[in-house]
Amino acid sequence: xxxxxSMSGLCGSSLQTRSxxxxxxxxxxxxxxxxxxxRSVTRMAGGENYPANWIRTNPLVPVLGFVGWxxxxxxxxxxxxxxxxxxxxxxxxxxxxxxxxxxxxxxxxFWLYLTVYHAGLFLTIFLxxxxxxxxxxxxxx
Length: 141
Description:
Strand content: 5-15%
Helix content: 25-40%
Structural class: mainly alpha
Shape: flat
Strand order of the largest sheet: 1-2
């Protein structure tokens, strides 16, 4: 009944906790054993450190990405019954807000419109960021 309880933590280290014996006396715990972690630090050629602003975001890219995805999805197509993806997405939001305390069920087409619209939006912004940074850094010459 009385003894140390072993708990496993991050990196395979083990932690021993103290427990109380039958009479309530505190028993000594085994020492804490931690494994050494090996770290590998990579430096760039010429002794340069990796730049802190490695992502180099451009605030114009999300704005143009939003416009560049929303405008084409606002064009009506015959596959969607003469409606546009953006129009169907906004109307499904309105329909679900009409029944506000109750959320949309899993078979509601809202989830499909939400997934398709946002996947395309994030892909457009992602590829736009790659294009802008590639042009600035001279990859497309």
